[in-house]
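Notes continue from the previous slide.

Worked example: a multi-chain complex. Inputs as given:
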Amino acid sequence: MTTPRTSADRLGRLLNLVPYLLARPGILVAEAAADLGVTEKQLREDLELLWVCGLPGYGPGDLIDMAFDGDHVTISHDAGIDKPLRLNPDEALALVVALRMLAETPGIGSRDAIERALAKIESAAGDLADAPVAVKLPANQEKLATVRAAVDSGHALRLTYYTAARDETTDRVVDPMRMLTVGTFAYLEAWCRRAEGTRLFRIDRIDGFTELDEPSRPPMEAVPHDVSGGVFRPGPELPLVTLRVGRGGRWITEYYPVEQVVKEPGEWLVTMRVTDLGWAQRFLVGLGPDVTVTGPPELVEQIRAAAHAALDQYAAP
Amino acid sequence: MNLVICLLSTRRFLTAAQIALTVPGYEHDPSDPRDHEAFQRKFERDKAELRELGVPLETGTASIFDQEPGYRIAQREYALPDILLEPDEAAAVGIAARLWQHAGLAAAASSGLAKLRAAGVEVDPQATLGVEPVVTVDPAFGPLTAAARERRAVTFKYRVPEVDDPSARRLEPWGVVCWRGRWYVVGHDKDRDATRCFRLSRIVGDVRAAGRPGAFTPPADADLIGHVAHSSGPIARNSRATVTVRHGRAAGLRRLAREIIPGAGSDQLIISYGDPEWLASRIAGYGPDARADGPPELRAAVIQQLKELAARHEPATPAVAS
């Protein structure tokens, strides 16, 4: 998965290794390897190479020198490489922008520490800290802060939660695991005692909660979701719906995971998976007049029948 | 490695010939043209490698009598300035470095973190901050931030969903903005001669640099977030709707209500709204479980949408092969 090791990569690693070890006399080789994100074998190979590096003259006293004591290593001569190289533009960008993101994340703890760290990294990065990236994450998240405070208390929570798929608001007891923001939304990930599974609860759909006296105790089988590919990743077991989408509704293909888009002139033919046909009806009709459902037939019939029944309510008595 | 150590240790500029005499690995016979050429190629390659790593290689001459350029590395330019982070600050940096899901940025963040560790910073890999942001970026992020930093114009193809074909754009990028989890670039659109923002996910294909670095200066008072927020600001909800919903149904509408008046068989909701068409679509989605009672503009919008809905979903509608 890592990028191919070039000799520049290795040189960068070696230049970093010397001051790293210098700052930690007697460190365990395995600990250093874990810290620096390399294998122990790789680190030992790098150390071998350091033996033959040093100042011109290349005699004893010029070469980098190390003392080994079992698996512990100490640098005894650094040959002038006593400090790491400056951050390069990409490193400065990646760290500065990530810290700005953290500082902007609603409900996050230690905001003060984040801002102090950001100021110090910016000062160390010099001109490069002026990263041309501004960050503004979802605003209006007082609720996130209150939920987070409850999660921090380490107690189980009773949630009043709106489930869009079933269009119902229900109470349930959950054991909080973590909170996260993905794209536009913030979530609480918790073990749901009613569903007996790990669930992601969108914070804006938590309509109320109370902190219970008992501690949060997610069971062993409670495993966090991998959300790197998005929160809703529909599987092949879910029903497919097909839509004709007019110009004004094309934006839905940017916001929702779709299986296929056939771009016909004028209207697009869109295929997407939905958790539930009842939800699909509310959701797709709710998107307005640019969306027409073409399949499956039972959904089309359901929408037609519901529209007629709804119209009957407006008929003059 | 030895080249870096040698050039860091010298205050005098060293010529290629002097370096060849000193640094192991460069031994060659300068009088043999092929051998000398091989040395020069290797030396050029190594210099390029140092610059790629960001090692500040200075060129100059040791004295006015020297013809050949010499090289050295200024320790002050080379070294990361001293950085002392408190444990909570170091924890924040460690968490920040884990934020990126994008391979390139993740690698840059972890090599940056390794430099901080080498500067003596101890980072607790287990630290958390209570909320984990999961950040994904579009492929255009890298080239656009680089161009904004270098103040270099770019060209790219941009596709707006409502328009069939992507259009070519020429932009002087001022900066990239993350607004509510989505990425935008703000800058001067050279064709429209105006400030514009573009969503990164709508950029099709590669972003290409066009022209020289330093070609423009962003306005000193440019409010990048303001430009993006302006085009997608909040909607004022000044109108008030009355909607009747059946008992135990339409939970999604009930959540929108500022007030619920219970009744026999059905309840009445009072909902604040801005865009009647938007609310009408929501109400239509609940079919016979919800009825818009007023104001008339909303009631009319719901009836109109329901009529169109019924017509568009009649079996007579030519079915599209799926």
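Summary box: Chain B touches chain A through 124 residues (CB under 8 Å). DSSP finds eleven helices and 13 strands in chain B.
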